[in-house]
User: Fold this.
Amino acid sequence: MVQMRPWVEIAEELRREIDRGVYGPGERLPSGSELMSRFGVARQTVQNAIDQLRAEGLVLSVAGRGWFVSERKPIVRLARNRLSKAERTAGRGTFMSDAAAGKWKPAVTVKIRRGQAPEDVCSYLGLDPGGEREVVVRDRVMCADGEVVQLAVSYLPVDVAAGTRLEEADTGPGGAYARLEEMGFELTHFTEVVSARSPRPREAELLQIPFGFPVIQVIRVAFAGDRAVEVNHITMSSERYQLVYQIDAD
Amino acid sequence: MVQMRPWVEIAEELRREIDRGVYGPGERLPSGSELMSRFGVARQTVQNAIDQLRAEGLVLSVAGRGWFVSERKPIVRLARNRLSKAERTAGRGTFMSDAAAGKWKPAVTVKIRRGQAPEDVCSYLGLDPGGEREVVVRDRVMCADGEVVQLAVSYLPVDVAAGTRLEEADTGPGGAYARLEEMGFELTHFTEVVSARSPRPREAELLQIPFGFPVIQVIRVAFAGDRAVEVNHITMSSERYQLVYQIDAD
DNA sequence: GAGTGGTCTAGACCACCCA
DNA sequence: GGGTGGTCTAGACCACTCC
Assistant:
């Protein structure tokens, strides 16, 4: 049970002290130099231990000031009814629905383009990966109270979206799903595939992700009957988001 | 747009080369020494770049052999019907249901104990955090084909579980949920709260998590009508798992 | 034994914050 | 200006693998 790697033991010791309340929420930890002499190790070793605690979400670092015990994280929650027809007919898209529930101010910047569908999108939309795979791409950066919290890239088949409101930045009240339904694609169900991974540097920068924090990735497919009409790649900071799903027992 | 930090640029360059197929899946990357001289940096800097790619899931390291482009990850999938009554009456618990779908060999080790409920469990189960918070705890380590893939800790109210089969290691066919239903708690729905974070060292060791890979955490609450009868803290490697949810459009 | 990845040390430099 | 966190270098050592 004894760990040989020094930084692991240092991290464990500090974690215990934080749990025990030696350093309370928001308080500063001892500085790098102090920890070096206390544990008798080099700067890098202390840094590794702190990096671990940062990755766990226990510690926050502020350049030039110090390391701080983090306060409890703010929770933005995704409920089930965000995808309900009721929300759409009330004029709210999914993101707006979250904003209304969470009482924060939403903002979205959109870039529209035509592009090639990635492989997984091809298989969902039923496009031959070797053939024509042009799709309409809606690339969005979403903010809550001025901070970027979510990246979303939607892929729509050309024969569905070309020349419609879906190729404009503002899709209007109720969002893209409302427009799809007006066009006769009555949405029947959605599939969400949830996974987690570490962010690419660009994502980390955009989402202002603290060191070591993973992102949650959701691939949502919107179905109108048997037909998949949209694939949405959603990336969000795991620090800001928790996903809530309700499953009925039959 | 120019990044100043060397390891970020090195990681980006290597990522491009992997995407372009210079190094195909399963192939070995250049060794540390080679990369050091190619980019003209110190060992640690190369290591940081590789660590980033490992965290993204692109690269796998094998001690004493080298760094390898990872193959596509094996997908263990959680479907919606894993929580269905049909699966339970067929004698399969949720984990067994996954195993049957994924064609791998399940194994579970269980430790039962009485303990204090953590704060979030108290609030779900309606226990006063200041008062009596003893619960029955089922601590499980789950394996697929001999590898640990999931940790799960269930909390059950004492007045529900005490002295029943739920306090035994083997809950019998259909698992704990089947027993709850036999006891008159007809399960109506489940809530799953999904989040992601970096693993604690102990979790990383148990789950054999590659460096930097986050874990997915699911808190599942089982309801019999209005009453929450079980809270389950589930931790799994994001490398092994993808969660699939289906949402009906009303 | 030679090569590999992984970690630790010691010392340096930078950007940032605060007095 | 002195302290802070963050990173890079150079060199060392260990465990592991392959020959």
User: Anything to note?
Assistant: The CA atoms of residues 31 and 133 of chain B lie 55 Å apart. Chain B has a mean pLDDT of 87. DSSP finds nine helices and ten strands in chain B.
